[in-house]
Each structure stands twice: as C-alpha cells, then as structure tokens.
Amino acid sequence: MEVGPDPAEVGRARRWARSRLVGSGIQGDEPLTETLILLISELVTNAVVHTGCPAVLRVLFGAGRVEAGTVRVEVADSCARPPEQRHAEGDDTHGRGLELVDGLADRWGWKAEGQGKSIWCEVDRGVPEAAYERGVARRLASVRP
C-alpha cells in the first residue's frame, strides 16, 4: 500500500492492514491483530513524521522470505537516513515508537533499499494465547514510563 507524507494516512494504513489481516485468517478480535495494528501504526507514523516522504507498507504472511507462522510488516521510504531508537523520559510525548516496536515484535530491523530504507518487524503466530498475552503485557510494562 502506498502511503502519502500526511499524518492522516496512518489511519488509512491501519484500516487497510486490518482488512489484510482478516483476509489472511487473523481474526479482528485476536490479541495478535491489535499488536500488529499497533506495530503498523508506529512504523507508518515514523515514516510519515520523520521523513516527510511517501512510503510503502507491506504485510507478508509466512511465504517466500518470511518463515511459516510469521507475519512480517515492512515500511519502505525514500529517505536514506537510518532510524534512530530514542529512549523517552517520563512525560516526553515523542520517542517511544521504536521502543514499542522493540518491545512488541519478535524481531525488527532495517536495511537500505534503493535510494532509501525499509524498516521491518516480525511477529510469530502460533503462540498459545495465554502465553502470548503474558508476553505482550511484559513487553508493554518494559516500555511504559
């Protein structure tokens, strides 16, 4: 999905991603869905806010270069500047995006792509729901101020 350099595009990206997730068999009420939507929101917001460039959102489901049972989210933009993980303090209103990605995704990173870069994260499916919810709660607690 192409995303314009406008903060309003983040909501459109979330709606598009939710329909892709449901279309792939991930139900809207699964904890995994909300985690993926949050990750997508953070990565698209970073691209829109910090680069001012259009971006491309991709959601891949355990095929090709993605391991079976894994959902991979990629956001590519034309800005070559690497992402910078900040560590927000107390009442800071910015600087938690990549901290959340680091806390919620099983893996994440970035790579040069064309004239710009691609930031990606992966979440493994198939984790029993109770264990998954405990993991999400633990990860969120680690990034809260």
UniProtKB/TrEMBL annotation:
Keywords per UniProt: ATP-binding, Kinase, Nucleotide-binding, Serine/threonine-protein kinase, Transferase
Any single Pfam family the record assigns to this protein: HATPase_c_2
UniProt xrefs under SUPFAM superfamilies: ATPase domain of HSP90 chaperone/DNA topoisomerase II/histidine kinase
A GO term, aspect molecular function: ATP binding
Domain Histidine kinase/HSP90-like ATPase: 5-120
CDD domains hit by this protein: HATPase_RsbW-like
Record-linked Gene3D superfamilies: Histidine kinase-like ATPase, C-terminal domain (3.30.565.10)
InterPro entries to which the protein is assigned, alphabetical: Anti-sigma-factor_SerPK (IPR050267), HATPase_C_sf (IPR036890), HATPase_dom (IPR003594)
Protein name: ATP-binding protein
Species name: Streptomyces jumonjinensis
